[in-house]
Predict the 3D structure of the following.
Amino acid sequence: MLKRLEEILGKENINLEEPMAKHTTFRTGGLAKYFVSPSTIEEVCQVVALCTKEKSPYYVIGNGSNLLVSDKGYEGVIIHLGNRFAGIKLDEENHMATVLAGTSLSFTSKQLSKLGLGNMAFAAGIPGNIGGAVVMNAGAYGGEMVQVIKEVTYLDEDGQVVTKPVSELKLGYRTSIFKQSKRIVLEVKLQLTPMNAGELLNEIEKLNASRREKQPLEYPSAGSTFKRPEGYFAGKLIQDSGLRGYQVGGAMVSEKHCGFVINKNHATSSDIYQLIQDVQRIVYEKFGVHMEPEVQLVGEF
Ligand SMILES: Cc1cc2nc3c(=O)[nH]c(=O)nc-3n(C[C@H](O)[C@H](O)[C@H](O)COP(=O)(O)OP(=O)(O)OC[C@H]3O[C@@H](n4cnc5c(N)ncnc54)[C@H](O)[C@@H]3O)c2cc1C
């Protein structure tokens, strides 16, 4: 397995027994047996074909900003689509941009805004990569990825590279056909709207200031830990359940924003997982509402 991975990617793009705490914004998680960073679509396809042939589990990550990886780690191949798999191609005439999956969402939003290509300002403070943002249909302040995606090129479950329009991708509230599937987002074409660059950059500054004021950005987290239950706000339910500041080991319900679970002090993934379960149980007992985690679990819990 290692020899073939080296042939496909080169030794320098493979890490063995890699601490996942280095690749998740929670800063927790055990060791990945193989951690690989492809730089081309062809390399992604070859790695997936190899894993399939060798019956090795694999899991794709972007910036790890919505992941809780088990302390026991991952006994397979983590395929990291990050800065080696990044780039933006512009078609200014048609106000479109094609973005590789590993490109930072925040960078993309700022670059396009500077060029007066609008409707991405909402995404400037979301610390994911474009691929992860499509999978999760990331959104904030009234904007959502579904509003700007024209089409997505992905590796489907049969190992074919296909391109589909957004209407076929079932993007909904923090979901899409990519979630919990073996499909891998490779490239995204965005349809933007010409706007005033200065106004877009001001809007980004305003939204980021609002995040700094309301969110516990000074601690590692994965943003909102839970999805918004229909008819409620997750943070308010947690607060009204008396859980502000509730702790399990080093994990804590943020005092600044109860919707965030933070790594307050050397938390493990088990601490965070236990805290999530406690919140679910207590909120359910108080309000009869099921809180579904937004955070994706990787490995054994
Ligand atoms: C401080 C903070 C604030 C946040 N604020 C917001 C917010 O306002 N709105 C919001 O929606 N989210 C927010 N998030 C959550 C997170 O940033 C988003 O969900 C983001 O889109 C995840 O992208 P990622 O690249 O980090 O994905 P990861 O966390 O690496 O992965 C998330 C999921 O996507 C899958 N995935 C990733 N890349 C690919 C790919 N190329 N192909 C197939 N599957 C893939 C993974 O397997 C996993 O299931 C916040 C997080 C933090 C830490």
Notes: The radius of gyration is 19 Å. The first strand starts at residue 14 and ends at 19.
